[in-house]
Amino acid sequence: TNQGLTLNQAVTVASIVEREAIQPEESSLIASVYLNRLAINMKLDADPTVQYAAGFNVEQSTWWTNPLSAVDLDINSRFNTYIYAGLPPAPISNPSLETLYAVAYPETTSYYYFRARCDNSGYHLFASTLDEQIANGCE
After folding, report:
1. CA 78, CA 74: separation in Å to the nearest integer?
2. Residue 3 CB contacts under 8 Å (≥ 6 apart), including other chains
3. How far is it, in rounded angstroms, from Cα 7 to Cα 68?
């Protein structure tokens, strides 16, 4: 790929982006965040990896627990990117061709953070610094 990733690594990144991007047009921005984090050995802190590690949620009747709890974030799994740096050992979902393309050709950004907008639109707010990320929080 264009990002210095093996095919398996690119598919793994794309699998995370696939689960994170509600609005497909944000995929290349979200990919840029994860690739920027990987480039500086920053943990990915990707919610979908924790959802994958948590497995099926009987109460919510879904494989993708939402919202995640503090207990979920402590699940000791190599898939939990809140605990383990780098990529999980394998993809967590089947990425679309469009998402694979977004990882191969991401936006060039200085973003290291993103969070859901507070309007339930499925869009995200992006930030370069932790202070900006905190300022983007919902009130």
Report:
1. 11
2. 10, 35, 103, 104, 106
3. 30
CA-to-CA distance for 79 and 46, rounded, in angstroms?
10
Task: Specify the pTM.
Answer: 0.95
Q: Is 86 helix (H, G, I), strand (E, B) or coil?
A: coil
Cα maximum dimension of the chain: 41
Query: pLDDT (tens digit, 9 = 90+) per residue, 73-132?
Result: 999 999 999 999 999 999 999 999 999 999 999 999 999 999 999 999 999 999 999 999
118's CB contacts (< 8 A; 6+ apart) are: 138, 139
Q: For Cα atoms 46, 52, 56, give the angle at the middle one, nearest 5 degrees.
A: 140
Instruction: Using a pLDDT cut of 70, give the percent of the chain over it.
Output: 99
Residue with tokens 């939990």, as numbered in its chain: 80
